[in-house]
Amino acid sequence: MEIIKTIEELKKYRKTTEGKVGFVPTMGHLHDGHLSLMKAAREECNNVIVSIFVNPTQFGPNEDLDAYPRDFERDKRLCEGGSVDCIFYPDVDEMYPREELTIVRVERITQKLCGKTRPTHFQGVTTVVAKLFNIVQPDIAYFGQKDLQQSIVIKRMAEDLNMDIKIKVCPIVREKDGLAMSSRNSYLKENERKAAPVLYESLQKAKGLFEKGENNADKIKETIRNNIEDKVKKEIGNIDYIEIFDTENIDDVKKIKKGNAIALAVFIGKARLIDNIIL
Amino acid sequence: MEIIKTIEELKKYRKTTEGKVGFVPTMGHLHDGHLSLMKAAREECNNVIVSIFVNPTQFGPNEDLDAYPRDFERDKRLCEGGSVDCIFYPDVDEMYPREELTIVRVERITQKLCGKTRPTHFQGVTTVVAKLFNIVQPDIAYFGQKDLQQSIVIKRMAEDLNMDIKIKVCPIVREKDGLAMSSRNSYLKENERKAAPVLYESLQKAKGLFEKGENNADKIKETIRNNIEDKVKKEIGNIDYIEIFDTENIDDVKKIKKGNAIALAVFIGKARLIDNIIL
């Protein structure tokens, strides 16, 4: 497995690869969710490149950039275990050697859901992903459905800008109790961790109602809200949003159809947890 | 010579090319300036692709999108004469099949010079050029120094986003009397056309002063302003800007150094003419 820290070396390496290149962009602190993306890439591609880069431009001024968990030695072992061919592990100066004037922004759909609480987040994501795509030049890039809005935004960017890259979205990987895997779960204290599966549980409840014929979005949101407020004490958590929408334009729906998504974000302790389900 | 109208066909064609691909993006109505770019591409590359696309998103609401001169049959003959391998000639629906949510923007340096009068112009340019780069995937792309700010902005975009494309800027091609070639020169009436070489003449005068030791930017700008106002009657023309700046950050300079640029824009009749010189 190659470990490459500079853009120039990565571009050189890329000239030696043959066949399809699969790319898994990550911020490190890998978990089974990331491993499932590597596995999907391994199955479809001749060469698998994982990037590990905690991108400062996607964190807001009061967010957790400094606290974000990092453990490269552990990540390296996990990549080796996942038969990854190459880790791209640049530092911040390598990715942003001077004032970055260029921004890639997706309008409208980035202002909803997480974009309301994190107004500059997606612009940081799309810009760094565009940079990484140009550096790695993959055939297929893999993203997790856990960050559903992110995957919709990146798909849109790739299509709008005519990028020659297929975007694949892989299913959410969960802990045994249903909590969606996330690097930010490490922020949770014991009692918070116990409360955290309420996101998934509420989504399952909503799904059950929809399958029994309930298609009123407000009613379903109300059920989710009540379920969370019942189970999470105000001292440890509060709801950021619960939204039901179509997965292309992230437009609110009033009458739910198959293929619509329910997404939610809940602050629990120091973590802001997100989860979603496509009906 | 191939004429290709769809993105899918162009991507297919691109898989059949061998060696270096040179790309000349244009809005058509080709003149000797464009031909010099094709010639430079022909000399350096195995394959030369010219795009002809009058990009609506780089025109402001009150600008000349509808009036912009178009003559594809003439352009085709000129490309054939220039030994171009392929013309990419998409229509607007091909390039923008639905609401375009994604924007590529270069901050700060796009708000100066022409950006003051044309605030959304460069965002339209960088977005369409990023799209064209992703479609054509050239090794080298050729731009004219006549649009100096555009070439600085595009270079910056390519560098910031780590695009694997070399940007080459070719010298301005001029009419015998010094007027920089431009598709918009066709808007000029006879008396306006006679006045138009004043841009070049003023730049030459400024260059002469600088070479004689004058490095005060305000004095040089004043000389240019006086020269233009002497020779162009108020009824047919007025100055948009005269600026002296460094060519990386487009920052104003007070004391001129070698390598700085002087650029100006003058409305003459219905045309907004631009010209520049690098000292």
What does this entry look like structurally?
- Chain A is of the alpha/beta class and about 280 residues long.
- Chain A is about 40% helix and about 20% strand.
- Chain A contains ten helices and ten strands.
- In chain A, helix 6 crosses helix 7 (about 150-160) and helix 9 (about 200-210) runs antiparallel to helix 10.
- The mean pLDDT of chain A is about 95.
- The interface of A and B includes residues 104, 106, 107, 109 and 131 of A.
- Strand 5 of chain A pairs antiparallel with strand 5 (about 100-105) of chain B.
CA distance, first residue to last residue of chain A: 39 Å
Helix proportion range of chain A: 25-40%
Tell me how many strands of chain A there are. 10
- The CATH architecture of the largest domain in chain A would be 3-Layer(aba) Sandwich
Following the backbone from N to C, one meets helices and strands of chain A in this order, namely EHEHEHEHEHHEHEHHHEEE
CATH class of the largest domain in chain A: Alpha Beta
Give the secondary structure arrangement, pairings included.
2 copies of one chain form a homodimer.
Chain A: E1 2-4, H1 7-16, E2 21-26, H2 32-44, E3 47-52, H3 72-81, E4 86-88, H4 92-95, E5 102-106, H5 114-117, H6 121-136, E6 140-144, H7 148-160, E7 166-170, H8 190-195, H9 198-211, H10 217-231, E8 237-245, E9 261-268, E10 271-278
Parallel strand pairs in A: 1-4, 2-3, 2-6, 3-4, 6-7
Antiparallel strand pairs in A: 8-9, 9-10
Helix pairs in contact in A: 6-7, 9-10
